[in-house]
Design goal:
Blueprint: H1 14-24, H2 33-40, E1 45-46, E2 55-56, H3 63-79, H4 82-92, H5 97-109
Antiparallel strand pairs: 1-2
Helix pairs in contact: 1-3, 3-4, 3-5, 4-5
Length: 139
């Protein structure tokens, strides 16, 4: 048995951290952040046609893990802090509450994956801000 610091992070209790660890396993099995976000089902799917560029909700991926991320996002929105600031910023940008919540879930799942391999990309995080020290970065 190994100890984890996940329960100390905002929005994560012992049960949610256990579910997260149980579904993710070894995070090193995901080559990039994008693979992990696809696995969680938090990445939007392209639904573009011609000049119309749009995305739709991804109903695939690991639904149980997606549910865990949803609980963390809702708790962070409710309890304040960086998650709530990010959510309110998305609302101010004109997103609906559901869209802003999904953006927060994507943001939360991004830092879980290991840093990109040197052959893929060099540099810092793909998105600045919340992701660099996101609530799941300690995984």
């Amino acid at each position: 048995m190994t100890a984890t610091a996940l329960p100390a992070l905002p929005g994560l209790g012992t049960v949610i951290a256990a579910k997260l660890l149980g579904h993710v396993g070894d995070v090193a099995r995901f080559p990039t952040e994008h693979h992990f976000v696809g696995y969680t089902g938090t990445a939007p799917l392209d639904a573009s046609s011609g000049k119309n560029t749009r995305h739709r909700l991804n109903t695939g991926g690991n639904r149980a893990l997606n549910s865990v991320l949803h609980i963390v996002a809702v708790c962070q929105i409710r309890d304040g802090g960086r998650g709530q600031e990010y959510y309110l910023r998305k609302i101010a940008e004109g997103k609906t509450p559901a869209e802003a919540r999904r953006a927060l879930k994507r943001c939360l799942s991004g830092p879980v994956a290991p840093p990109p391999r040197s052959s893929v990309r060099q540099g810092g995080p793909a998105r600045p801000g919340l992701e660099a020290s996101g609530p799941l970065a300690g995984l």
